[in-house]
Amino acid sequence: MPKVRIYTTTSCPYCTMAKDFLKKNKVLFEEINIEKDHKLAREIVEKTGQTGVPVIEIDGKIILGFDKAALKKALKIK
Amino acid sequence: MADKMFDIVIIGGGPAGLTAAIYAARFKMSAVVLAKMPGGLLTSAHLIENWPGFESITGIDLMKRIQDHVEKLGVKVLIEDVIDINKSKEGFKVRTEGKTYDARTILFATGTERRRLGVRGESDFLGKGVSYCAVCDGPFFKEKTVAVVGGSDAAAKEALLLTRWAKKVYIIYRKQEIRPEPATADAVKANKKIEIVANANVTEIMGKRFVEAVQLDNGKKLSVDGVFIEIGGNPISAMAKKLGVSLNDRGEIVTDKDGRTNVPGIYAAGDVTNRTYKQALMAAAEGASAIFSAYRFMKEGKE
User: Fold this and answer.
1) Which of the listed residues B229, B246, B275 is the one where a domain comes to its end?
2) What is the domain-level CATH number for residue B166?
3) What letters, b where the CB count within 10 A reaches 16 and e where it falls short, cover B55-73?
4) Would you call B65 an interface residue with chain A, using a CB distance cutoff of 8 Å?
5) In this structure, is residue A10 part of a structural domain?
6) CA B278 → CA A73, B208, B260, distances in Å?
7) Number of independent structural domains in chain B
8) CA distance A48 to chain B (A)
9) What does the alpha-carbon distance between residue B58 and residue A75 come to, in Å, rounded to a whole number?
10) Number of structural domains, chain A?
11) What is the pLDDT of residues B83-130, one digit of tens each?
C-alpha cells in the first residue's frame, strides 16, 4: 500500500471529494487539517510551495488539487 | 453499460441537476446524474442564508443534504466528466471517459466555470497566493493581507469570510460601487478589516515564490500575500452548442420558461441558462421545471 497523506482545510469541498474518492477506492490515508495547526500550515506551504488545498502526497510525490486522473495513475486505480 | 436506456441523463450536479434528479425519480423516470463536481460550485459558498428552511447553512452541507435526498430516491450521482454528446436514433449518446450512456432526453445543468482575470501572474501564482476558493484556501492567510477581486455579492461575502483569518482584506473592483445584497453591504461596511479599492483593475500579480503584490491600472501597487478572484463565471455550453442548441451572446443556453431549448429532447436549467438572476434557489426550480417538460415530451412525444 502506498503511503498517502492529504492536506485539507475544514470546509474545502474539493478536499471532501478527494477524501471520498480515496475512501471509495479503499485507499488508506492520513489527513492533516492545516486549519487546526497554524505552525504546521506554514511548514506545509514551505514544503509543497502551495497555499491551496487539497494537496495529496503519495509516497512523497505531490498532487495538487483533486486531480482524479493523476490520483488514479499514482494509485494504479482503474 | 451502453445497454441501458435512461429516460434522462442529467449533466451537472449542482442545485439544478440534483433537484431535477429528485423530480425525475418521483416521475419514475430512469435517470443518472453525471457531475464533474457533485454539489457544484455552490459547495464552495461559505454560508447560504437565503435557502428557505435554513437560516444559515454552509454550501457543502446544503449540497450534501440534497445529494443524500437524490440518492435515497435511487438516482446515482456519478463523478464523471462528460466529454461528448451525439444524437442517436432514440435520443442521445452521452460519452464520459470510458463510458457511454444512452438517453432519451438530456438536461444541461452544467453551470459555469470561474472566470479568470487574464492578467500576468495569475496562472503562475495559482496555488501560490492566487485562489478561486476562499473557503478552501482562506486558512492559509492567517494574519496576512489579501485582496478579493470583484464587486458582486459573492465577492463581498468572500471578503467577509477572509476577515476570519486575514488581518486586512482589500476588495478591488473596477467600478465606483460594489454591488452586494444590502444585508451583505452592511456587514462589509461594519467590518474594519475590509478596505474597498474602487475604480481599479488588477493588471498584474507579482511576487517571487509566492504572491507579494498586485499592480493596479491607477498606477498603485498593493502589497498582498493572497489574491482571491471572484469575477463570476462563463457558462459551460459548448457541448449544447455542438448539438444545435441556441445560445445567447453571453454563451448562455436559451430556454423557454419551462426549461426547453430549441432542440426537442434537450433541456437546460440553472446558471448555464439565460435567466437574469443566478441564484441556487432559482436553479433548483428550473431543474424541476425541466423535468416536467421532459416528462411530458416522453409521454406525449411532443414538446
Assistant:
1) B229
2) 3.50.50.60
3) eebbbbebbbebbeebbee
4) no
5) yes
6) 37, 37, 18
7) 2
8) 10
9) 31
10) 1
11) 999 999 999 999 998 899 999 999 999 999 999 999 999 999 998 999
Cα A47 to Cα A41: distance, rounded to the nearest angstrom: 10
Q: Summarize the confidence of residues B225-236 as an average pLDDT.
A: 96
Compute the average pLDDT of residues B230-247.
96
Size of interface A-B (CB pairs under 8 A): 71
Give me the residue from A15, A34, A49 closest to B209, CB to CB. Answer: A49
Residue A60: other Cβ atoms inside 10 A: 8
What mean pLDDT is reported for chain B? 94
The last residue of one of the domains, among B182, B211, B229, is B229
A8 lies in some domain: yes
Please give the share of chain B, as a percent, with pLDDT higher than 70.
Answer: 98
Q: What is the pTM of this model?
A: 0.86
Residue A9 to residue B139, Cβ atoms within 8 A = yes
Taking any CB pair shorter than 8 Å as contact, residues of chain A touching chain B are: 9-17, 21, 34-35, 38, 41, 45, 49-53, 64-65, 68
Domain that residue A41 falls in: 1-50
Cell output for B221: 501597487
Same domain? For B80 and B219 the reply is no
Interface test with B, best of A51, A62, A63 (most B CBs within 10 A): A51
Taking 60 as the threshold, does the pLDDT of residue A6 lie above it? Answer: yes
- Residues of chain B in contact with residue A65, where contact means CB-CB under 8 angstroms, are 127
Residues B82, B210: Cα–Cα separation, whole Å: 34
**B121: domain range?**
116-229
Whether residues B40 and B78 share a domain: the answer is yes
- Express each pLDDT in A45-76 by its tens digit: 888 888 889 999 999 888 988 888 899 999 99
Of A7, A10, A11, A71, which to mutate for an interface test with B (greatest number of B Cβ within 10 Å)? A11
- Shared domain for B244 and B101, answered yes or no, is yes
B1 band by pLDDT with thresholds 50, 70 and 90? very low
- How are beta strands B130-131 and B226-229 bridged, if at all? parallel
Question: Residues B198-207: pLDDT tens digits?
Answer: 999 999 999 9
